[in-house]
Amino acid sequence: MSSAETSSGETPSNSIGLLPAPESDASTKQLDVGSGQKVLLDELGPMVVNSDGTLSRIANWSNMTEAEQKRTLRVLGSRNQLRLAAIEANTITDQGLKE
């Protein structure tokens, strides 16, 4: 018998149960992973390539003005390309040392 059960095997009414299902919202996007359809996540903002190769997003993207978003996209595009090239060069160098 678990600590959440009473001697009769029932769980007490004041115990923590399952979370309720989320409310359905018209703005919520649902993705059928088997359909092969393309899903745009523009409202999340662009992907940022970090110097260690991990990916992240800009937390305040939805709060930026359109001008700030355009400027950020321009800067990120260049920086992401540089970081990806550096990561690829390091990977090739590392593989060359192992062989």
Number of strands: 2
Number of helix segments? 1
Estimated share of beta-strand residues: 5-15%
Roughly how many Å is the radius of gyration? 24 Å
Report on the biggest sheet: 2 strands, antiparallel
> Percent helix among the residues?
25-40%
User: Which stretches are low in confidence, meaning pLDDT under 50 for 5 or more residues running?
Assistant: none
> Which descriptor suits the 3D outline?
extended
Mean pLDDT: 78
Can you tell me about this structure?
Residues 1-16 have a biased composition (Polar residues). Residues 1-32 are annotated as: Disordered. The structure is a single chain. This protein is mainly alpha-helical. It has a domain at 43-98. The chain is 33% helix and 6% strand. The protein contains 1 helix and 2 strands. It has one helix at 66-98; strands spanning 47-49, 55-57. The protein has a two-stranded antiparallel sheet with strand order 1-2. β1 (47-49) and β2 form a beta hairpin. The N and C termini lie far apart (58 Å). The model has no long low-confidence stretch (mean pLDDT 78).
Output the keywords.
99 residues; mainly alpha; two-stranded antiparallel sheet; 1 helix; 2 strands; 33% helix; extended
